[in-house]
Amino acid sequence: MNWIAWTILFFLSADFLLHLLADRLNLGAISDRIPLPFEGRFDPQTYRQSQAYLRANTRFGQTTAAVDLLVLLAFWFGGGFAIVDDWTRSLGWGPLATGLAYIGLLSGLKTLVDQPFRLYATFVIEQRFGFNTTTITTWVKDRLKGLFLIILLGVPLLSGVLAFFHHTGTTAWIWCWGLVTAFMIVVQFVAPTWIMPLFNRFEPLTDGELKAAIMAYARSIGFSLNNIQVMDGSRRSSKSNAFFTGFGRHRRIVLFDTLIARHTTDELVAVLAHEMGHYQMRHIWKMMAAGILQTGVLLYFMSLIIGTPALFEAFFVTHPSIHAGLVFFGLLYAPVDFFLGLLVQHISRRHEFAADHFAATTTGGSRSMVEALKKLSVHNLSNLTPHPLHVFLNYSHPPVLDRIAALEGGKSEDGN
Fold first, then answer.
1. Structural domains in the chain?
2. Is 254 in a helix, a strand, or coil?
3. Which residues sit opposite 315 in a β-bridge?
4. Where are the transmembrane segments (predicted)?
5. Is 371 labeled as catalytic in the residue annotation?
6. How far is residue 181 from each of residues 127, 161, 170, 176, 250, measured CA to CA in Å?
7. Which of 173, 230, 304, 352 shows the smallest number of beta carbons within 10 Å?
8. Who contacts 358 (Cβ-Cβ below 8 Å, separation ≥6)?
């Protein structure tokens, strides 16, 4: 083993142990006492159920992470990367086709390992706690549609990256950065129209009190809106959500049918005000810019080390190649990605506070937003008292009690 192998092994182990510690602290933060803002909302039995849901998901997550790590280490030190590389080379294809076959085969093996856990999560844990509403047929179709999208979108993108690294020398990372950036932007435009309808049915919100209230609110803040969609979220889960997607004429506000069924008009307007707030404050563009910058950093460092012999020696591969280098660098880069991810999540949590504040300010008060957050938390069996380390490592949204406190205090975390 060389220094690269030891570095990767150290950070893989450290990451696993750090998340294990955060999980233990998170479970230790569980209290039998219902937090004051939720008294009268969570009855004792439902609150105990939310804690049981947390325990079940935590144990499952730990098991999944342990299996993932053990399978990776067994594959690595059993010479799996070299075996797959030798086999794909033996096909006699060109470097581009060989690279696609190599990465595709590794991805397929990883998918096969993951599927039993995904099945268990959906049809055991989510089923046990009353959330799952999907069927095995729908679940399988979703997997097949996902595979279709990977082939349709992922293969051309990966082909471009491989081609640039093969033919453009030291400027490859810049060409790849441009390609990936263009891909990310295009997907944002086409996803609402072409991709999302592959998985869910979207129907325009019918005329009535709710649509009139949403349109009136949108006009009050100068938000051009002509596309409010209702998604059949109940087809797969009883959980509720709403989101904003797309840009320009392709943008749309989406409400889950489960959300509409459980909330008042004022609460739904507040939830959508939060989503519109993200757009009005350019959070979507800022997070996309952060993702583009993060990609540029990754590709730059990749260009520096992808041809280093020690990178291939660490994985017992005797024939250096661009395709194997992409895979191995992904593992070496994981620590950098981990810290960049923490920064992005911190920014995301600040954006959520700011969007809450925007909703409260523009709808005339925080009551409706607070009520909506409480209902969502109760129905989704949310953990009300997560440990700060667990939040720091895993949360893109602030804990609900922090959001309620900021709303009722009249300030967001960023001081607005």
1. 3-132+282-408 (no CATH), 202-262 (3.30.2010.10)
2. strand
3. none
4. 6-22, 65-84, 90-109, 146-166, 172-191, 288-312, 324-344
5. no
6. 39, 12, 19, 8, 19
7. 304
8. 273, 274, 276, 277, 280, 281
What percentage of the chain exceeds 90 in pLDDT? Answer: 78
Reported as half-sphere exposure (CB side, CA atoms, 13 A), residue 267 has a value of 15
Phi/psi at 203 (5° precision): -130, 145
Which tokens belong to 244?
């904003």
Written as one letter, the residue type at 353 is: F
Going by their DSSP bridges, the two strands 228-231 and 252-256 should be labelled as: parallel
Residue 357 amino acid letter = H
Sign of the torsion formed by the C-alpha atoms of 92, 93, 96 and 100: negative
Which residues does residue 253 pair with via DSSP β-bridges, in sequence order? 228, 244
Q: Which residues are annotated as a binding site for Zn(2+)?
A: 274, 278, 352
Alpha helices in 236-282 (DSSP H): 257-262, 265-280
Annotated binding site: 274, 278, 352
For the stretch 235-291, pLDDT in tens is: 999 988 888 776 666 667 889 999 999 999 999 999 999 999 998 898 988 888 988
Question: pLDDT at position 250, please?
Answer: 60
* Residue 247 pLDDT: 67
Instruction: Please say if 126 is a catalytic residue.
Output: no
Find the catalytic residue in 32, 275, 402, 414: 275
Q: Are the C-beta atoms of residues 225 and 121 closer than 8 Å to each other?
A: no
Q: Which residues contact 224 (CB under 8 A, 6 or more apart)?
A: 218
Helix (H) or strand (E) holding 114: helix 95-120
Q: Is the pTM of this model over 0.85?
A: yes
C-alpha dist (Å) from residue 175 to 167, 180, 182, 326: 11, 9, 11, 15
Q: Which of 356, 408, 413, 414 is catalytic?
A: 356
Run of H or E including 372: helix 367-379
